[in-house]
Amino acid sequence: MRRVYLSSLVVLMLVFSLFIGGASNVIAEEDTVVIGQSAEAPGLHTLIETSIPVFERVNLINEPLVKLNHNLEPIPWLASDFEILEGATRIEMTLRNDVLWHDGSQFTAADVKYTYEWLLDEDNPGANRDIYADINEIEIVSDYEMVFHLSSPNSFMINNMARLGIIPEEYHEEVGHDEFAEAPLGTGPYVHEDWTRGEYHTMTAFEDYWGGVPNFYRLDFRPIPEDSSRLLAFEAGEIDMYHGNVITDDIARLEEDPDFLVKRTATPRYNYVALNQESTENPEIMQDPYFRKAVTHALDREGIIENIKAGLGQPGKSAVMPYMEHFNDELDYPEYDMDKAREYIEMSSLEGGETVNLYVTEGDFWESVAEILAYELNNLDINVNIRIEEYGAYLDRLYDTKDFDMYVFGWTGQIDPDRAMYRQFHSEGLNRVGFYNERVDELLDKGRTVDPNSQESVEIYREIQALILEDNPKAFIDYDEEISVLHADFEGFEVHPYNANNWIQLFDRVTRAE
């Protein structure tokens, strides 16, 4: 087994290893954990939905072949072993032979092959298809041995496999993807039980789980969009824990209270303002490069971090995390400078008094950033309509219609430079901002084929960052810290830097004091 990319994030964190075992053989049915979330999940299909509220849940139901540990290294999961061969064009997998689906049927290589081929079929509504496009053929050697053949070298494929939950061929074919999104079936430590949208989603322990009986019988996920309401529910004991979108002014108070625990770690996530060059609302404004440059200088990153996030975070510069060797630290990244922003507006085609639309979803942080940016742009004689949308409708706009001038959001999972760049800036990636550059496409394709630990790889991704900075498809706000809060009677919890994996540890390493 070969490790293909070890992020230097490890120097920023304590080392916490995931382990299997130690779970009790007896579980009390009244032992329930209530988890707060900042938004409702649009659906529960692991191959279709991509948002964090979805992954936080479905990662407990549909498991991947490999999983990212707390050091963001891929480790065996449903695959008991893997080997990367022939210049990263062949991945050999040995699967666990003791895994059952929640309906009692046996997990085999046929389910894995079905999962990947369903996702790669362009007639299906799969998401993230672009990061698996190099998979050319999936060969089943036996029920528990298989080979992934890649059309070109891809050193990052094993990392990408860590985000793809496997689905059961027989059940999925029987019910179809729409029904599966309402009632998923998996191999994970928890079984989908009941879901009332906007109120709760209940899972119960899978007592035949290959990793042992989970520590908690029942998990209830409760969506509470307003940050202040979620905090009140937490302090009142209505929810046991939540992470992300914690009101930062209250973190110090919570840390001093013996009834609560605050856990934090560095995370491969940033927040940003998207500047859509394919906008149908105000295309002439959004296609003006000087307007986009002006926005990058009108964004008060330091002020946002200090006044909204109580000093937590670092000013954003690039999609590549600054602790990565591939980060280009020689570029002149934009800083808050209203004089320079005004100069760019004067160089632009804008005459003054124009109006642009800025979209956000519900949440104190997003709304505050939008208000600050709107205030600064108004000082440049640009009117801003702030449009606040419910989370599901917001995702539809971002992913499907792409009908917006600008939006404020976050992007997580930048565990390697390919994950940080390809989906956002390649012409065949998700690319929600209408950015197209032939040289960037060429470099992103090449970056997948070279050793990620080589100097050539570093130079490739540093050049990409320089080209993106020239065009400014995004104005980067800040690099996040991942923060979780929980009641003090929980033991063994450590916040996961890849926040979609945060609650997996509830099945084995986290316990509640008597």
UniProtKB/TrEMBL annotation:
GO terms for biological process: peptide transport. The keyword Signal applies. GO terms for cellular component: ATP-binding cassette (ABC) transporter complex; periplasmic space. Residues 73-429 form the Solute-binding protein family domain. It comes from the Bacteria. GO terms for molecular function: peptide transmembrane transporter activity. The keyword Signal applies. Keywords: Signal, Transport. Belongs to the bacterial solute-binding protein 5 family. This is ABC transporter substrate-binding protein. It comes from Halonatronomonas betaini. The lineage of its organism: Bacteria, Bacillati, Bacillota, Clostridia, Halanaerobiales.
